[in-house]
Design brief:
This protein is α/β, with parallel strands linked by helices and about 525 residues long. The protein is about 40% helix and about 25% strand. It folds into two domains: about 180 residues, Rossmann fold; about 260 residues, P-loop containing nucleotide triphosphate hydrolases (Rossmann fold, 3-Layer(aba) Sandwich). The longest helix is centred in the middle third of the chain and has 18 residues.
């Protein structure tokens, strides 16, 4: 008897069908991956199994072998379905910072589950919660149990979410993009952890992801979704070696492709950084900390030169100093050492600082978070012009906006009323194009790209990378590219800097660093990305 047998699943919202005719069968202990681009219906399919697809109308059947017998999840009364949640079927959500309760400690949240679902006394539940944190590889589990979500790193928060999901030893674990925002080494740790726990507890896992590399490493079987339809499914090796559906073939061919040109060795220096050091004050321990501040060194002794039309790829785990280095280059945080852009430095005068900010702009990781939801495209993209080129007439501003939006692949023909639209009216890839347009409109010569594709599906990421490469060729732009994705580095970078604990452990040309790494940490990063 199968553990989960989905027959003809259909999901509709306000009469619009988003999933139709989905059939999927999972056996106990199997590892499945559900793969597709944003909007394909992956997450809502998983949520519907737990009755969490809010306002969604479901049809079909989802037979599940629960502890109380075989039940149809799609037609189960609410009290019975509630009893199954967390006990027989558990879920690890994509973003732990929004899924975890910010006003309860991690230990309290796990203890609550054990008390509610398993009827444990509070002391026994707390002991079990600490043990669960230990099982998921969190250091100092007793202390971490007393911490709040914001006091943990991204990897620790994800481990805490997994500990909560496994509290009642579920038969089926639904893992929705559990490693999306994590560094490659942490991602590998989380994936290994899921595999180890899956084997230890003999549970089945349905991994929802758009990362085909994760599928290859983790899953036994894979199901491919396109716009709500399951187009292909089967053993991972079979699907990856001989995909039959055109969409599957497209996904497998969507890995980042290098399309940047070789650089000119005599190119003018765009950025020169010499012995850069970034520090932050931190409170000392105990009552003496109120009177004597300690110092945290975020970046130490970093030096590099970046030529015009070149890309410097910066890699490293969370906390390695990547963002602090970028903030220093942007002139947004105090630092010691020298940072010059085209021979000029920040801090000389407000007039020079403004001129320099026109030369260097930034594209953030999350376009939905960095674009104001209350501003139209016209206001968002034109904001820089109002500050840096206030002498332009309204007609000139309008022409400049239309030109830069067309340059990034957004036109009035494609999106009628484009300038009056809001960010929520665009897809993730289109919002990232808006963010790039906002940076380009003032005519910079350097862009700082902070994880520009990590929030995007693989095909959308390739489109954005191709756009950035085209803009670099057309405009001669220099890029400071911050990413944890080695494939993106290979596709875009000319030079590579590897940061660990604020120090540059290795730096050089792309092939020198990635094909012949000298430092053990670089070798570890590359091994984790395979």
């Amino acid at each position: 008897m199968s553990l989960l047998d989905i027959q003809g699943l259909g999901i509709a919202f306000e009469g619009t069908e988003v999933v139709s005719g989905l059939n999927l069968r999972m056996e106990p202990g199997q590892r499945w991956a559900l793969v597709g681009e944003s909007g394909s219906g992956k997450t809502v399919t998983a949520l519907s199994l737990l009755g969490l697809a809010q306002d969604g109308h479901t049809t079909g059947h989802a037979w599940f072998d629960s502890s109380e017998g075989r039940v149809d999840l799609l037609n189960l009364p609410a009290p019975q379905l509630q009893a199954l949640r967390g006990s027989d079927i558990a879920m690890v959500f994509q973003e732990p910072m929004t899924a975890l309760n910010p006003v309860l400690t991690i230990g309290e949240q796990i203890t609550e589950i054990l008390q509610t679902k398993m009827g444990m006394p509070i002391k026994e539940a707390h002991t079990a919660a600490v043990q669960l944190l230990s099982d998921t590889g969190i250091d100092e589990p007793e202390r971490r149990a007393q911490a709040y979500a914001h006091q943990l790193s991204g990897g620790q928060r994800q481990r805490a979410m997994i500990a909560m999901a496994l509290a009642c030893r579920p038969k089926l674990l639904l893992a929705d993009e559990p490693t999306t925002a994590l560094d490659v080494t942490v991602r590998k740790q989380i994936l290994d952890l899921l595999g180890e726990l899956q084997a230890r507890y003999a549970m089945a896992v349905l991994l929802i992801t758009h990362d085909l590399n994760l599928v290859r490493q983790f899953a036994d079987h894979v199901a491919i979704m396109q716009t709500g339809v399951l187009v292909e499914q089967g053993p991972v090796q079979t699907i990856f070696d001989a995909p039959k559906h055109l969409y599957t073939q497209k996904l497998l061919a969507s890995a980042p492709v290098r399309c940047v040109v070789d650089t000119n060795p005599s190119a003018k220096t765009a950025i020169a950084v010499d012995h850069l050091k970034v520090t932050y004050p931190v409170a000392g321990k105990g009552w003496r900390g109120w009177f004597r501040k300690n110092t945290f060194v975020a970046v130490q002794n970093a030096s590099f030169k970046l030529g015009q039309g070149q890309t410097l790829g910066i890699v490293g785990e969370s906390g390695s100093g990547k963002s602090s280095l970028a903030l220093a280059v942007l002139g947004l945080t105090p630092f010691s050492g020298d940072v010059t852009l085209f021979g000029r430095s920040f801090g000389v005068s407000s007039r020079q600082d403004r001129a320099l900010r026109k030369e260097i702009q930034v594209v953030f990781q999350d376009p939905y978070g960095s674009l104001s939801p209350r501003m139209t495209v016209q206001a968002i993209v034109g904001e820089g012009l109002r500050l840096h080129q206030s002498q332009l007439s309204a007609q000139e501003v309008h022409e400049r906006l239309i030109a830069v939006l067309e340059e990034v692949g957004l036109s009035e023909q494609q999106f009628p009323g484009l300038l009056q639209r809001y960010p929520h009216q665009f897809s993730g890839g289109q919002r990232q194009r808006l963010a790039i347009a906002r940076a380009l409109v003032v005519g910079p010569r350097v862009l700082v790209l902070d994880e520009p594709t990590s929030a995007l599906d693989i095909s959308l990421a390739q489109q954005v990378l191709a756009l950035l490469a085209q803009l670099q060729r057309d405009r001669g732009l220099s890029y400071v590219l911050i990413t944890h994705d080695i494939a993106v580095i290979r596709a875009m970078a000319h030079q590579v800097m590897v940061l660990k604990n604020g120090a540059v452990v290795e730096m050089g040309g792309l092939t020198d660093v990635l094909d012949r790494p000298q430092h053990l940490y670089t070798q570890t990063l590359l091994a984790a990305s395979q």
